[in-house]
Amino acid sequence: MRINIRIFGIFVLLALLITSMASVVMAQEGAVNENDVSLIAAFRSIQPTSDDSDIDLIVTNHSSERRVARFEFKGIPEGWDIQVWQRYFSYRLNVLALEPLGSPNEGNKQEPRLRITPPADSQAGEYRFSLEVLSEDGKVKFDQADFTVSLPERTPVETGNVEVSTTFPYLQGPTASRFEFEIAIKNKTGADASFDLSAAAPLNWTVQFLPAYGDERLISSVAPIDNATQRVKVRVTPARFAEAGTYSIPVTVSNETYDTEIGLQVQITGQGELSMDTVATVLSFDATAGEASQIDLVIGNVGTDELTNVTMLAAAPDGWVVSFDKESFPSVGVADFQPVAALITPDKDAIPGDYIVSIIARSPDDLREASLRITVSQSTIWGWLGIVIVIAVLGGLGGLFWRLGRR
């Protein structure tokens, strides 16, 4: 009976030790680090076209664990209302849950919007604030975006008996942007009137007129009653590869009697755009457990401006090792393509089958991700070793039977 009690005690100690070790491993696997979550905000310096300005955000979880990101603002100007909203402005967001990398329907990526509302009596000038993305407990800062909002002087333009004005006649951004101005048309003709809307845009540019509020239908004229003001949104879409520079877009409000023009300006700034592909232009590869395989990649810039501080990252199954012959690039110029070799070593105990390894190229302005499907097979060395062991065992048994037979 005493022996049984000792054996039972040993089993209890082993169970506690195994549980403790498993807890430590799980805690290590779930550890949060600053590279787990990224924040991309393509527009950092804006001139609002209306009372509310919206900026698209992309928040991505690059880790293999579920992450919770918390938003925190720094330096918000007094009286300003700045919040992160759900993409369709259904509700405000303070905390965002992101599924692990590789989740179905890109559950690791969310695209909320930042809404900026200055006070009605705000003065002209530049205002700055920052948006930080933190871990749930606030101890780890994943990423940060700094914003500048420029408020110009309100300068109405007036001609004849039709007054046309805009609060923000000058906008800037990259070629891929869609610029939206808001103009106010006041009928001072002394009677109800209808006015046609037209614009002179550069070659291959698109100018559209829409109601300032309500649905997204396109309009070509307005009919304000006497002494009333009607607001119209002017949407300007540049040519896809428009060169950097300042472009003028004269907008005309006219009828048979009155003709008023207001000048809008768009400054196009360059924007880098990452591209990434394999030299073989395929995303499926074979590998052997415990052995390194090289995959040749090409990182490029297909945008209109230089990219800086491009870094290479990877997300792979536990026990795998991924390294690059070039971990980062100080800069990648326009139409410049750089070779990168990724060395992928599956875990030596990996079960044969298909695995996903994500390769990520990241810069402060853009991010590109490629998912590689790696088909793992066991090393033939282990197969031969197993055959040798079987032969050795059979030889030993044969020798044993031979000795017993002689006796």
From the structure above, extract its key features.
407 residues, mainly beta, Immunoglobulin-like, 3 domains, 5-stranded mixed β-sheet, 31 strands
Give a topology summary.
Blueprint: H1 2-29, E1 37-40, E2 45-46, E3 53-56, E4 58-61, E5 67-74, E6 81-85, E7 92-93, E8 95-98, E9 109-110, E10 113-117, E11 125-135, E12 141-151, E13 157-159, E14 162-166, E15 170-174, E16 179-187, E17 195-199, E18 206-211, E19 221-222, E20 229-237, E21 245-254, E22 259-269, E23 274-278, E24 284-288, E25 293-301, E26 307-315, E27 321-324, E28 328-332, E29 337-345, E30 353-362, E31 367-377, H2 380-406
Parallel strand pairs: 2-12, 15-22, 24-31
Antiparallel strand pairs: 1-4, 3-10, 4-9, 5-8, 5-11, 6-7, 6-10, 11-12, 13-14, 14-16, 16-20, 17-19, 17-21, 18-20, 21-22, 23-25, 25-29, 26-28, 26-30, 27-29, 30-31
Describe the structure.
With 407 residues, the protein is mainly β. β11 and β12 form a beta hairpin. It folds into three domains: 119 residues, Immunoglobulin-like (Sandwich), CATH 2.60.40; 117 residues, Sandwich (Immunoglobulin-like); 109 residues, Immunoglobulins (Immunoglobulin-like, Sandwich). It has two helices and 31 strands. The strands form seven sheets. Strands 2-12-11-5-8 form a five-stranded mixed β-sheet, with no helix packed on it. A five-stranded antiparallel β-sheet has the order 13-14-16-20-18, with no helix packed on it. The protein has a five-stranded mixed β-sheet with strand order 15-22-21-17-19, with no helix packed on it.
